[in-house]
Design brief:
The radius of gyration is 25 Å and the shape is globular. α4 runs parallel beside α5. The chain is built from six helices and ten strands, in the order αβαβαβαββαβαββββ. Helix content is 29%, strand content 24%.
């Protein structure tokens, strides 16, 4: 019979109650020191998913100067809508909207909502937008403009996982051919944007485009917007009480309410004419 060896395990001495208390206190102190400040955005070495912003934002036709943004830090706003592309922009000339401006604004604490104003519905209400209608091949146009939106976003340093918001001005819902063409354009734009790693959002009037998207959702349409930015002016902010949207749809963190428009405001001596928004939704991820 072979010999056996008895294995002797020596127990480590148990820490005293005082030592245990000291270790617990030290670990708690380290956790406090390493935790991010309340409301702070996590440090990023690269995109790790959409950034959700909850708070107040404004949008204005032209991106304001950095000095204006600095003056407006004394306001309640911490988000800003930027019209970064699209042939339908009311202000195509954007001298301030450069990669450097985007980085500086982001570092100063501003969270950006990128808006793309592309082709518009054939039955658009605004007569100035009728010259840039979608045309006879809405899916092709939507995909092409979705690619353009991604290229323009990337040129500004807006990384994947960012929300990009398609701006579709108010249009009539009375024509099936118009709404069908518009829906084909929107879903093609969404597919292209999502396929390249961005979050497709949608801006429109609550009583036109947003009502249309809700009907399409109820009908089971695929490739609808992931985030809904609805305009209903002359009312109080009401993110989750909008009557045109199901209470269970586009949530959590997927709604913006534009509750006032073309309002002059002055902060720190700098005056802007803005639209006011309440936000619980993804914003841009900046490289």
């Amino acid at each position: 019979m072979g010999s056996t060896k008895k294995i002797i395990r020596r127990s480590a001495p148990r820490p005293t109650a005082l030592l245990t208390a000291l270790l617990t206190a030290l670990l708690g102190l380290l956790a406090t020191l390493l935790a991010p400040a309340a409301g702070a955005e996590p440090d990023r070495t690269g995109p790790r998913g959409p950034n959700v912003f909850q708070g107040w934002a404004f949008d204005t036709c032209k991106a304001p100067s950095l000095s204006t943004l600095q003056a407006w830090k004394h306001s309640k706003y911490r988000g800003i809508g930027i019209y970064f592309g699209g042939r339908g922009r009311a202000c195509p000339n954007q001298p301030n909207l450069t990669p450097g401006w985007v980085r500086s604004a982001h570092r100063a604490g501003w969270r950006m909502l990128p808006l793309y104003v592309g082709s518009q519905a054939p039955c658009v209400v605004n007569k100035h937008k009728r010259k840039i209608t979608i045309g006879s091949n809405p899916s092709q146009v939507g995909a092409s403009e979705g690619r353009d939106a991604v290229r323009r976003a990337q040129a500004l340093g807006i990384a994947p996982d960012s929300a990009l918001y398609l701006d579709m001005e108010a249009y009539s819902l009375g024509s099936a051919s118009c709404t069908g063409r518009t829906l084909s354009y929107i879903t093609a734009w969404n597919r292209e944007v999502a396929g390249q790693g961005y979050v497709p959002g949608f801006y429109s009037s609550a009583d036109s485009g947003v009502r249309h998207m809700e009907r399409a959702r109820q009908a089971g349409t695929r490739d609808l917007p992931s985030v809904m930015w609805f305009a209903r002016w002359h009312t109080k902010p009401n993110l989750y009480g909008e009557p045109e949207l199901s209470s269970q749809a586009w949530r959590p963190h997927r709604r913006i309410h534009q509750y006032a428009g073309n309002v002059p405001e002055t902060h720190g001596g700098h005056r802007l004419v803005i639209d006011r928004n309440q936000v619980d939704a993804p914003v841009a991820v900046i490289r």
